[in-house]
Amino acid sequence: MKYLLDTNACVTFLRDRDSQTGRKLMSVRYADVVLCAVVKAELYYGVQRSSFPARNLVQLNDFFANFGSLPFDDQAAEIYGRLRAELARAGTPIGPNDLMIAAITLAHDLTLVTHNVDEFGRVAGLRFEDWE
Predict the structure, then answer these.
(1) 90: exposed, middle or buried (C-beta count within 10 Å: 0-12, 13-18, 19+)?
(2) I want to staple 107 with a disulfide (CB 3.0 to 4.6 A). Which of 23, 40, 73, 75 is the partner?
(3) Are the CB atoms for 27 and 21 separated by under 8 Å?
(4) Rounded distance, CA 111 to CA 10, Å?
């Protein structure tokens, strides 16, 4: 199985490698785990708002070096449009970044690792696991 890490899973791992998420991540092959540009953008934002941006940027880039990264491409854009319309019709929208992450996950037939199961649970067909 291949996994895409959501931002909260990355933050949990970076803060505490001995967390449940950290232990699970270290038990799977890194080749079976990817990030995406949207998650990386959220993490870069967090680093820039932190008390120690230079130090945290080094840690973040070291973390990124372990995983491939997927873009928000045309296939994900098409899925995003469909999902956003479906969720709007149902009156259950989710945030735009999470919607892009869900679209990338679906476009690549991955399983999303997230603790945000309430929001991602609204996306039909999305496989996700909560490693917390």
Answers:
(1) exposed
(2) 75
(3) no
(4) 15
pLDDT digits (tens, 9 = 90+) for 51-73: 999 999 999 999 999 999 999 99
Rounded to whole angstroms, the Cα distance separating 23 from 38 reads: 24
Where do the structural domains in the chain lie, given as residue ranges? 3-129
Structure tokens at 90: 């149902």
Specify the 3-state DSSP secondary structure of 96: helix
Taking Cα atoms as reference points, which of 114, 120, 126, 109 lies closest to residue 1? 109
Q: Quote the CA–CA distance of 7 and 26 in Å, as a whole number.
A: 17
pLDDT tens per residue, range 3-56: 999 999 999 999 999 999 999 999 999 999 999 999 999 999 999 999 999 999
Instruction: Find out whether 128 and 120 touch, Cβ atoms under 8 Å.
Output: yes
DSSP assigned state of 36: E
- Nearest of 73, 117, 115, 77 to residue 96 by alpha carbon: 77
